[in-house]
Design a protein that fits this description.
About 70% of the residues lie in helices and about 0% in strands. The chain has about 110 residues and is mostly helical. Helix 2 runs antiparallel to helix 3 and helix 3 runs antiparallel to helix 4. The mean pLDDT is about 85.
Length: about 110
């Protein structure tokens, strides 16, 4: 039952994504324009730092830093929004994986 139910949920969510994105696309940016490579390179750098820091800082702390850095650097959100979203995301990751699923994550400096 569970795989079937999850499949139904996935199909509904996929349908919602399809129907909410009907219409004109965003303005296209040529890939070879100057500075067009900056965002993908910054994304790779942030993910690389996350991978390197994951074992040393711990899973929850790394997730908080990843989400906060991503929102600050790539999405240009305010510090308050980025920090709040990062902390809430870290809390959700901790509650779901550590408490609900009882999956051991690497412990780090803080958690």
């Amino acid at each position: 039952f569970m795989p079937f139910g999850l499949g139904i949920i996935l199909a509904v969510l996929a349908g919602m994504i399809i129907f909410t994105n009907l219409g004109a696309d965003e303005k296209r940016v040529r890939f070879w324009n100057p500075m067009a490579w900056l965002r993908p390179l910054l994304a790779l750098a942030i993910m690389g730092a996350y991978i390197i820091a994951f074992d040393d800082l711990g899973a929850v702390t790394s997730v908080v830093i990843l989400v906060t850095a991503w929102l600050l650097i790539l999405e240009k959100k305010t510090v308050l929004v980025a920090a709040a979203t990062g902390i809430v995301t870290g809390l959700v990751v901790y509650l779901v994986f550590e408490r609900l699923l009882m999956t051991p994550f690497p412990r780090g400096l803080l958690f």
